[in-house]
Amino acid sequence: MTIAENLQHIKTSLPETVTLVAVSKTKPISDLTQAYEAGQRVFGENKIQEMADKWEQMPKDIQWHMIGHVQTNKVKYMAPFVSLIHGVDSLKLLQEINKQATKYNRVIDCLLQLHIAEEETKFGLDEKELNELITAPEFAAMQNIQILGVMGMATFTDNQEQIKKEFKHLKSIFDHLKSKNPANSNLTTISMGMSGDYQLAIDCGSTMVRIGSSIFGGR
């Protein structure tokens, strides 16, 4: 199957309400160009420098999503162009994004990353930290960020029931967050689900899926 055929196959299986992020990390420009020519406009990268290089070379109607862990000192390299940052897991990082966005007179959209997996290695906020973040006076004062929703990664397991439980947990956190109506937010997005579990994620309420290997092939 070609990249275009893979994309077409996945898109026909997605409800219209779900955004497909093509995870293009480590893939060459030629692969991204094939996806672009097939109509894909949202790409996800996990290294800021690689994303910036691709942004410079690719058409400017692409939305670039930063899906990896973000180091504070690297935010400045993506501030001019990034569309959505999926992995915001601290007030400090949000303050840096706000600061860099201000320099470019932009409002940068962000997702708050929640730790929903049983594995200890994943980044993300727990519910207590989430609450502390959205109620902090510094959070309300930021003018150049907007929280669009939440992102989470399920445990890497074949246990579908466990994955389902974690996805449903993220959906409930999102619903709770929405009921609080925090400052600086327009809560529309739940980013969960990847190549192996995106159908399950959609069943559990995902509005954005991050798919790489099913589009571009294995690493």
Q: Can you tell me about this structure?
A:
The protein has 219 residues and is an alpha/beta fold. Helix content is 42%, strand content 20%. It is built from ten helices and eight strands. Strand 6 (145-152), helix 8 and strand 7 (185-191) form a beta-alpha-beta unit. It starts with a helix and ends with a helix. The model has no long low-confidence stretch (mean pLDDT 96).
Integer-rounded radius of gyration: 17 Å
Major sheet = 8 strands, parallel
CATH architecture: Alpha-Beta Barrel
Q: What string gives the helices and strands in order?
A: HEHEHEHEHEHHEHEHEH
Count of discrete structural domains: 1
Distance between the termini: 16 Å
Q: What name goes with the CATH superfamily?
A: Alanine racemase
Unreliable stretches (pLDDT < 50, length at least 5) are: none
- Strand tally is 8
With strands numbered from the N-terminus, the spatial order across the biggest sheet is: 7-6-5-4-3-2-1-8
Query: Residue-averaged pLDDT, rounded?
Result: 96
Q: What would CATH call the class?
A: Alpha Beta
Helix/strand/pairing category: alpha/beta
Q: Roughly what percent helix?
A: 40-55%
Question: What attributes does this structure have?
Answer:
globular; 219 residues; 20% strand; alpha/beta; 8 strands; single chain; eight-stranded parallel beta sheet; TIM Barrel
